[in-house]
Amino acid sequence: TEFISANDLASLMDASVNDVIKVCLSMGMFVSINQRLDAEAITVIADEFGYDVEFLSAEEEETEMEIVDDPEDLRDRAPIVTIMGHVDHGKTSLLDYIRDASVAKGEAGGITQHIGAYEVKTQSGKPVTFLDTPGHEAFTAMRARGAKVTDIAIIVVAADDSVMPQTKEAINHAQAAGVPIVIALNKIDKPGANPDKVREELSGINILVEEWGGKYQSQEVSAKTGVGIDDLLEKVLLEAELLELKANPDRNAVGTVIEASLDKGRGYVTTVLVQTGTLQVGDIVLAGPHYGRVKAMTDHRGKKMKKAGPATPVQVLGLTGAPQAGDKIVVMDTERDARELATQRQQLAREQSMRTKKHITLDEIGRRL
Ligand code: GTP
Ligand code: MG
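Structure tokens predicted for Translation initiation factor IF-2 (369 residues):
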């Protein structure tokens, strides 16, 4: 693996890049300014300049970046919830009902827009944040990038249907991620609904609901009439209480990108779930291979926001590109640092994709021979 360019190594050692290149030449290495150097080269060059180099493994870098808060600075935060289940069992309908009900309850004038995540106030006044991405994506795409965003999973099963393959898959995903499950027995308004049959099937895959002496909370609901949905949210909150979800709002924000796109009028629009700290207009952020200054923030009703604390989803304007879902977004101290890191990451990605291309070409040649 290559680490940094000759140029960056020079600045780390407070030397001019020309001197670095000269030293390389004297040792028989032809190096260009932006060429990335491997560990051996770095060690040899640094030694010439009187430096010892310590290489951190990826793992160590991860721990190094881990945020350690003083317990005194921690405040309660809203749970982040994903809805999963089999095709047509009512995931979208349930999300829509919950969002529309909350918009209807709130001040008028807001137009609901799809931003991939939203926060609702439950009857008891406590907030819950919903991730409005297909549950599987939330778990697979994001987890592939090492992002863990979901605290609780609602597994929807249509009460007029059965536990289906994707129901089981969703349960497996949640369990593998160690995320607690609340069961929503949906479509209870339908004449053919038979929630007991579904409870029975669930017990067959070791999901024994509380009413039957098990540990899983379940709630009969209808995404059509809205019956049971307030109770479902209260059960989610109960689960959240057990998790004691906390974060420090008084620090530089760290969050995860939920989705991003290019808007003709507004430029790059990035939906961010703030996980710790508070994101503010004017902050300089780095998100995957992109950076920028937060020009404006809005919630899912298009309402302008100046600040977004832990577990708050916001649309952010001002990035120089569209990061991918699951990319981490962090606040940086200077625009220079943000730009530099973004450029480095872009370069790495380019080099990686070039290597992949080369590999394919060689392979093709091999096949032709
Ligand atoms: P996919 O995104 O395709 O996996 O489906 P989904 O799980 O999002 O289901 P969706 O919300 O699209 O609902 C599927 C169908 O069931 C739609 O026609 C809904 O109107 C209907 N539906 C959902 N919930 C209810 C309910 O509680 N009662 C009744 N009667 N119909 C419902
Ligand atoms: Mg859907």
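The first helix runs from residue 6 to 12.
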